[in-house]
Amino acid sequence: MGTLDGKVAIVSGSGRGIGREIALKLASEGARVVVNDLDAEPAEETVTAIEAAGGQAVSCVGSVTDADFGERFVQTAVENYGGLDIIVNNAGYTWDSVIQKMTDEQWDAILDVHLKAPFRILRAAQPVIAAAVKKAKEAGEPIPCRKVVNISSMAGTGGNAGQANYSSAKAGITGLTKALAKEWGRYNVTVNTVAFGLIKTRLTSAPAGGDDTINVAGKEIKVGVNPQLLAAMEQMIPLGRGGEPSEAAGAVYLFCIPESNYVSAQTLICGGGFNI
């Protein structure tokens, strides 16, 4: 038996990287997972991997920034699995520039994906959760502890040069987490944040100044980190290295298990001991 047997989870941005590892981890512990990615292929690859390991998953393909995505994401869980127990707001990317060169488009795009999209998903989830709680109360049944885990970054807790947009959005996630923990405590929902430090993904593994890009809604956005800066960052981490996506997923998992049922409105730093 898995720790999350019978639970239904939605994980945004789970076709690749950290999100994929979160989906795989939750599924390995028994959760039925709704997988999301911008593109159908990586989403289906994650679903296939979960099913091959004996788990259950379906995909909900599309951009979290679409106006109707929150409702569609939540309803995919309800229609396929009959409810919703775990929400992980993970989808996102970076689009860096110093503030004097940052465009309104850059600012808006990053605030939309990292802050507005989680807000819309959570707004769409509220009627489903409230109705389930009301039904349980009327039946005299215990109300299960549901979980929300919002993904932040150490850029949101301490700022990062060249990331005014990303740092602001991730700091905003902390405020959203704390507000919702107060609103949803009456539903027996815990709401927490995991803030990642240096995690080895496609956004951080490529060298800065190279040709590596990610495609977001038809726009090619350069990614990468200066190798010397990356080496210096790793030297500052007490554990001496960047984290693996599976380790990042482990931090999220801590907030999804029954042992954390009385932990809410908290931000967990997953950074190998490094702090700013």
Description of the molecule:
With 276 residues, this protein is of the alpha/beta class. Helices cover 45% and strands 16% of the residues. It is built from nine helices and nine strands. It has helices at residues 17-28, 40-52, 69-81, 104-139, 154-158, 164-184, 202-205, 227-236, 245-254; strands at residues 8-11, 32-35, 56-59, 86-89, 146-153, 189-196, 213-216, 219-222, 267-270. The strands form two sheets. It has a seven-stranded parallel beta sheet with strand order 3-2-1-4-5-6-9, sandwiched between helices. Helix 4 (104-139) links the parallel strand 4 and strand 5 (146-153). The longest helix has 36 residues, at 104-139. The mean pLDDT is 94.
Regions with pLDDT < 50 over 5+ consecutive residues?
A: none
**Please, what is the oligomeric state?**
single chain
Distance between the termini: 39 Å
Q: Helices and strands: which structural class?
A: alpha/beta
Q: How many helix segments?
A: 9
- Calculate Rg over CA atoms: 18 Å
What share of the residues lie within helices?
40-55%
Strand order of the largest sheet: 3-2-1-4-5-6-9
For the biggest sheet, the summary is:
7 strands, parallel
Mean residue pLDDT: 94
Number of strands: 9
Element order, helices and strands? EHEHEHEHEHHEHEEHHE
Shape: globular
Give the percentage of residues in beta strands.
15-25%
How are the elements arranged and paired?
Layout: E1 8-11, H1 17-28, E2 32-35, H2 40-52, E3 56-59, H3 69-81, E4 86-89, H4 104-139, E5 146-153, H5 154-158, H6 164-184, E6 189-196, H7 202-205, E7 213-216, E8 219-222, H8 227-236, H9 245-254, E9 267-270
Parallel strand pairs: 1-2, 1-4, 2-3, 4-5, 5-6, 6-9
Antiparallel strand pairs: 7-8
